[in-house]
Amino acid sequence: MIFKRYLTLAIKKKIPGFVFDIDGVLVQGSRPIPAATKALKFLHRNKIPFVFLTNSGGLLEKEKSLQVLRKLGIEKEFPPVKTILSHTPYKALSKQFKTVFSVGPIGSSRVLREYGFEKVFEASDLIEKYKGIAPFNMVSQRKEPYVSDNAKISEDGLKFDAIMVLSDPRDWAADLQIVTDLLVSDNGKLGSLNLAKDKKTIPIFWSQRDFQWKTEYSLPRFALGAFREMIFKLFAIVKQPELVTLPDFKQINNKEDLKSDKIEEFKILNTITEHVMGKPEPIAYQFAKKELDKDFIEKHGHDSETEIGEIFMVGDNPLSDIIGAHRYGWSTCLVKTGVYYDGYKLPVTPTMIVENVEEAVKNGCKRAQ
Ligand code: G3P
Ligand code: MG
C-alpha cells in the first residue's frame, strides 16, 4: 500500500504555475495589453494554475480581480482570479492597531475597515474636522461621498497607533503633511510635537516601495516609493531644520558639511519604525504561493496525478517582481511592456526576457513538457 502510494507520488506529472504582476504585464493604466487576454484564456482552458500578485492597492482583492478582467474584456467568461494586493498582509494586523491613519486614494480607508480595523481615518476626515491642517488639499474637489469615521473623533482629539499606507496618495500635499505630522508627534497624538532626536516614531506600514510604475504614458511614472522618499526628506528636515537645502547649495562648496549632514540625516531616519510589504519582500511571494496552491486544488482536486512544478513570476519591474521572485527561488519572466527597457541595468538575470506575457506563458509551458 505504502509502496503503491510512493509510486503514485513519484510519477506525478509536473505542470507550471504562473504568478502575474498586473501593471505593465496585463494592463498599462486603463489600457489592456492584448497579449494578456490571449495568455489568460490559454491558461484557463488548459487548467493551468495562476494568480495575480500586484503592488497596487486601495481596493479589495476581489474588486481588483474584477477591474483587471474588465479591462481585458473577459470578466463575463472568467471566474474571479485569486489576487494578492500589496496590502493583503495588513489583514493580520487589524486587532493589533486600534486607531490608524490610512493613506491611499480618497475613500480607500474603507478597505482597512473591511479588513477589521476598528477606527480608521484618512486625510479627508481630518481636513473636514481640523481647519487648516492641510491647507493645500484637493478634498474640496471631491465629488463622490464616502463613509467617514470622523464622527468617532472624541473631544480630546485623536491618538494614532499606526500609519497604514495602502497605495499612492492622490492628494500628495495633504498626505505628506499629515503623515509627517504623525511621525514627529508625541506617540501618535495628532497636533503634538516631539522633536527629540532619538524619539522612535509610531509604526508606519508601507504596502510596497516601487519607485516607478508603467501607465499608458511613454515613460515610467512615480510610484509609492517616490512618496516614501519625500516623507523621509520632510521628516528629517522637520526634526533638524539645518538639513534644508540652502539657496547657495553649501554642499557643493563644503564637502565636510555634506558628510556630517548626511550622517545626521541617517541617524534621524533610523528613528522611523517602518515595515515594508509588497514585492520584492518575501511575504508577497509567500501569500501568492498559498493562493496558487489553492487555485491548483480548485482546478485539479486533492488526488490529482499532477502537481505544480516550476513557478514563473511574470513581471515588468526588475527591482520588484523579478529580484524578489529570483530570491524566493522561482523562475522569472521579464516582459518588455512595462518599466523595463533595453539597456536597463538588471540586478539579477531573469530566467527569460520576453516581448510580452503571452510569450512568457508559451515559453513557460514549453519548459514544463
Ligand atoms: O507601484 C505601482 C503599482 O501600481 C505597480 O503595480 O501590478 O506592477 O505590481 P504592479
Ligand atoms: Mg508591474
- The appropriate CATH architecture of the largest domain is 3-Layer(aba) Sandwich
Physical arrangement of strands within the biggest beta sheet: 5-4-1-13-14-15
Q: Beta-sheet strand percentage?
A: 15-25%
- Total number of β-strand segments? 15
Report the bound ligands by name, code or SMILES: SN-glycerol-3-phosphate, magnesium ion
Mean pLDDT: 91
- SS content category: alpha/beta
- The level 1 CATH classification of the largest domain is Alpha Beta
- Give the full name of the CATH homologous superfamily of the largest domain: HAD superfamily/HAD-like
- Which word captures the global form? globular
How many structural domains can be distinguished in the coordinates? 2
CATH fold node name of the largest domain: Rossmann fold
Counting H and I runs of at least 4 residues, what is the number of helices? 12
Helix/strand order, N-terminal first: HEEEHEHEEHEHEHEEEHHHEHEHEEH
Distance between the terminal alpha carbons, to the nearest Å? Answer: 30 Å
Low-confidence stretches: none
Major beta sheet, specifics? 6 strands, parallel
Radius of gyration: 23 Å
Percent helix range:
25-40%
